[in-house]
Every structure is written in structure tokens, then in C-alpha cells.
UniProtKB/TrEMBL annotation:
Belongs to the sigma-70 factor family. This is RNA polymerase sigma factor SigS. Keywords: Sigma factor, Transcription, Transcription regulation. It comes from the Bacteria. InterPro entries: RNA_pol_sigma-70-like, RNA_pol_sigma-70_dom, RNA_pol_sigma70_r2, RNA_pol_sigma70_r4_t2, RNA_pol_sigma_r2, Sig_transdc_resp-reg_C-effctor, WH-like_DNA-bd_sf. SUPFAM superfamilies: C-terminal effector domain of the bipartite response regulators, Sigma2 domain of RNA polymerase sigma factors. Gene3D superfamilies: 1.10.1740.10, Winged helix-like DNA-binding domain superfamily/Winged helix DNA-binding domain. Residues 128-173 form the RNA polymerase sigma factor 70 region 4 type domain. Sigma factors are initiation factors that promote the attachment of RNA polymerase to specific initiation sites and are then released. Sigma-S contributes to the protection against external stress, thus playing a role in cellular fitness and survival. Pfam families: Sigma70_r2, Sigma70_r4_2. Residues 26-92 form the RNA polymerase sigma-70 region domain.
Length: 200
């Protein structure tokens, strides 16, 4: 049963006051779903556990200044994605342009203030909503960590058709973002690619 807004607000307040019981409640309620969320992206049990540990350690260390303007679960999922991108940067990313993009992303987003990240998600979601139905379905399934083969099976399409839908979706989103939010376009595509990372 989901927490009510009142319960969530009380839990956050208790956490900010240094209440260990509130911290334990937060951990017990969400660690398993967050671990699954992390593992789907990094495909490594030890790395996924480290990511979740880092999320909760950072929350406790920054409890007094933490800002949560959304549901706790949504915030925690954003914090996991933030740690996942840190993991991929340390493990895989060498490209200077991408590194520069990441640095800019870090300037606007921290573990105790994910507002910049959530603003990007809103912008992307708004553009996705405008896509044609099949293209939108393919995009949303991809964002939900389904492989191209799985999407093809679910939508009763050929894999090449799915790939075409995904490529065209990205092209359309890039064009729309480039015209409406030129200062956000590179960061937005970094967020999209982060959510799609290593999913074939």
C-alpha cells in the first residue's frame, strides 16, 4: 500500500531531524525495488548493491539539506539513475564531449536536489506524448528496459521495424527539443541514453 502524502511528509521531516527509525523505514520499504531498478541497468549484482548503498549513505549524510519535491519513490528512482550514470562514467565513458555534458549535468543535479533531472524528464515526456502511437509504444517499452526483440514480440512487429521506430522517435525528439529548448538538448539525450544504456 503506497504511503500517503502526509505519511511521506512526516517521514521526510523525521529523516531530516536525524531519526534513525525513519531512515530504517525508508530503507526497508524501498531497497529491494531500487536494487532491481539498478540491476536492470548495470547487469552486475555487486555494482547494483554498491549503487543502492551509495544512495542511502548519501541520503543520510545530507539528510538536513535534502530536498524532495515529489513522491519518495520517484525521488529515490531518480537518485538511483544518478548513481548509475556515475557508475557508467567511471567504468566506460572516455569521450571528452560526453564528459563535458556530464559535468554540466552534475552542476544542475545533485543527490540532495534532483530538480534539474526531473525537469529534463518532464520535457522529454512531453515530446514523447506527441509521437505516433506505435512509435510511442516502442519508445516507452525501450525506456522500461525491454530489448528490441521483446518490443517486437509485444507489438507484433519485425525487429527492424522497432529499430526504425526508435531511431525516428529519437530524431523527432531531437528536432523538437532543438527548436524549443536548444540549451537542454544534449543533456536531454544524455538522460535518454542513460535510461537505454546497454539494453540491446
Amino acid at each position: 500500500m503506497p504511503m500517503t502524502v502526509l505519511n511521506e511528509s512526516a517521514l521526510i521531516s523525521a529523516l531530516q531531524s536525524g531519526d534513525h527509525a525513519a531512515y530504517a523505514t525508508l530503507y526497508e520499504k524501498f531497497w529491494r525495488s531500487l536494487y532491481i531498478h539498478a540491476y536492470k541497468r548495470v547487469k552486475d549484482e555487486a555494482a547494483a548493491k554498491d549503487i543502492i548503498q551509495n544512495v542511502f549513505i548519501n541520503i543520510w549524510q545530507r539528510r538536513e539539506t535534502i530536498r524532495i519535491h515529489t513522491e519518495i519513490e520517484h525521488y529515490l528512482n531518480g537518485a538511483v539513475r544518478f548513481q548509475v550514470f556515475n557508475y557508467f562514467r567511471s567504468e566506460k565513458i572516455k569521450d571528452k564531449v560526453l564528459e563535458s555534458t556530464i559535468q554540466r549535468f552534475e552542476e544542475m543535479t545533485t543527490i540532495n536536489n534532483l530538480d534539474g533531472y526531473f525537469e529534463l524528464e518532464k520535457i522529454i515526456a512531453g515530446e514523447v506524448a506527441l509521437l505516433p502511437d506505435k512509435m510511442k509504444e516502442a519508445y516507452l517499452l525501450k525506456a522500461a528496459q525491454h530489448s528490441t526483440a521483446e518490443i517486437a514480440q509485444k507489438l507484433n512487429l519485425k525487429e527492424q521495424t522497432v529499430s526504425n521506430h526508435l531511431s525516428e522517435a529519437l530524431r523527432r525528439i531531437r528536432v523538437k527539443l532543438g527548436s524549443k529548448y536548444p540549451e537542454w538538448v544534449i543533456l536531454a539525450f544524455f538522460v535518454i541514453e542513460l535510461n537505454w544504456f546497454i539494453i540491446s
